[in-house]
Amino acid sequence: SAGTRFEPGGGATVGGVAMTELAARFGTPAYVIDETDLRERCRAYRAALPGAEVVYAAKAFLCRAMASWIREEGLGLDVASGGELAVARSVGFPAERIVFHGNAKTPQELSAALDAGVGRIVVDTLAEIGHLAALVSFGRRQKILVRVIPDVDAGAHPAIRTGGEDQKFGLSIASGAAGEAVARALGQSSLELVGLHCHLGSQIVTPEPYERAARTLIELLGRIRDAHGVVLPELDLGGGHGIAYLDGEQGLDLESYARRVGDAVQAHAAWLGLPAPRLIIEPGRAVSGPAGLTLYRVIAVKRGLSRVFVAVDGGMSDNPRPCLYGARYTARLVGRRSSATTRTATIVGHHCEAGDTLAEDAELPADIRPGDLIAVAATGAYHHSMASTYNMTGRPPVIAISGGRARLVVRREEPDDLMRRDVGL
Ligand code: LLP
After folding, report:
1. Which pLDDT belongs to residue 7?
2. 201 a known binding residue?
3. Exposure winner among 206, 214, 248, 295, fewest CB in 10 A?
4. CA of residue 303 to ligand 1 center, whole Å
5. Closest CA to 254 of 393, 49, 35, 415
6. Which atom belonging to ligand 1 lies closest to the Cα atom of 385?
7. 379: CA distance to ligand 1 center in Å?
8. 282 CA closest ligand 1 atom index
9. Domain map of the chain by residue range?
10. Does the annotation list 255 as a binding residue?
11. 4-32+290-420 — its CATH code?
12. Is the CB of 320 within 6 Å of ligand 1?
């Protein structure tokens, strides 16, 4: 019963549970995660890339239940902060399967990562190499990857493009910084350089940029061998695998990604006389995004001069992506039958800000009215994790569906939660 179903009569279910029932039981707005579907996505990744290490990018969506699902499915975990690491540790996530990221890791975060015994730390600046080396306990060696810039432009929006030169992530190959980082890392006895990392950006829907990046990084592996006489065994190609947000859209096809990137790695390594490096990939959105949806209640419907506004009980606090990236979504009326023709409406939130829009051009029945329930699809990644408390709005709960049953995994944030950290006068 995995997956989300919308029936013409207004019936809508997630993993076999009616959305109306979820709204009644847990209130709105609410994030709903189809655990079964999410686990199937984890398995599909492992099956498509049996020789690779699949590391889920926690930033897309993380809570303790999620960390447990990822652990149980045998994936690794990419964490990018001390907070994400703490969640992973709280569920006993195997430390050797954790990859620690960040372009500006604090000394406390580096120490926490070392204390936890994380499997890989991805170094992102020259200075970090010396700092990290000095923090490693005597007699130990920390495995690291060096993050380099492959100079490949890909990704859906400038704010989520990280493969090109002159942005804050990674070390430039062209400028010589990447080569210098490698030399420095190899010179530190407390560090074990095991490979290279890159992350091109997000919401990439074709394998081609990954093939190019793989070739660029393998060429660097060849130059490292020639200069230092070492063959680095790992190649981390990051995440960024795109998903469909709108009807008719196509995400990155996992099978063709696996085949084409796998072939490119094999062929290019062979051409340079290198053993094929072990691949690491870091999908976030493609694992959790399609497994989630958000339920909202319609509060008000208003006719503007040239369009209709449908205002719901959530908004930019639970989904900042339309504001940040111009992201577009599919929204549907659920829970009742409507024979009205559909028309284009703008779904707006309840925040005190004119740009608080969830969908510019939603197709909704013309008789949409207060009290109706709306489901917005593909909100399992970068929604809960990017939610804010703007206007002192508590963040929505996360409800997990599995085995035809719903359970709360993160409760709704209440005004008391928000005030608890306000120490007063
Ligand atoms: N690995 C690294 C090093 C990353 O920086 C990221 C995402 C990922 C993996 C996972 O990327 P994914 O497969 O989820 O695309 N907030 C933006 C996305 C920012 C992604 C940042 N890094 C959004 O809502 O679209």
Report:
1. 82
2. no
3. 248
4. 37
5. 49
6. 16
7. 14
8. 9
9. 4-32+290-420, 36-287
10. no
11. 2.40.37.10
12. no
Distance CA 160, CA 162 (A): 6
Q: What is the pTM of this model?
A: 0.97
Ligand 1 neighbour 202 (Cβ under 6 A): yes
Ligand 1 nearest-atom number relative to CA 156: 25
Give yes or no for residue 282 CB within 6 A of ligand 1.
Answer: yes
Task: Spell out the SS3 assignment of the chain.
Answer: CCCEEECCCCCEEECCEEHHHHHHHHCCCEEEEEHHHHHHHHHHHHHHCCCCEEEEEHHHCCCHHHHHHHHHCCCEEEECCHHHHHHHHHCCCCHHHEEECCCCCCHHHHHHHHHHCCCEEEECCHHHHHHHHHHCCCCCCEEEEEEEECCCCCCCCHHHECCCCCCCCCEECCCCHHHHHHHHHHCCCCEEEEEEECCCECCECCCHHHHHHHHHHHHHHHHHHHHHCCCCCEEECCCCECCCCCCCCCCCCHHHHHHHHHHHHHHHHHHCCCCCCEEEECCCHHHHCCCEEEEEEEEEEEECCCCEEEEECCCCCCCCHHHHHCCCCCEEEECCCCCCCEEEEEEECCCCCCCCEEEEEEEEECCCCCCCEEEEECCCCCCHHHCCCHHHCCCCCEEEEECCEEEEEECCCCHHHHHHCCCCC
- pLDDT at residue 191, rounded to an integer: 98
- In the chain, the N- to C-terminal Cα span, in Å, equals 52
Find the 308 Cα to ligand 1 centroid distance in Å.
Answer: 34
Specify the residue with its C-alpha closest to ligand 1, atom 24: 382
Q: Is 296 annotated as a binding residue?
A: no
Q: Is 180 annotated as a binding residue?
A: no
CB of residue 283 inside a 6 A radius of ligand 1: yes
- pLDDT of residue 91 exceeding 60: yes
Q: Under CATH, which number does the domain 36-287 receive?
A: 3.20.20.10
- Compute the distance between CA of residue 327 and CA of residue 195 in angstroms, rounded to an integer: 34
Give the rounded distance of the alpha carbon of 46 from its chain centre: 17
For residue range 141-171, what is the model confidence (pLDDT) as tens digits? 999 999 999 999 887 788 888 888 998 999 9
**Tens digits of per-residue pLDDT, 27-75?**
999 999 999 999 999 999 999 999 999 999 999 999 999 999 999 999 9
Assigned token pair, 89: 């540790």
Quick one: pLDDT at residue 203? 96
pLDDT score at 425: 83
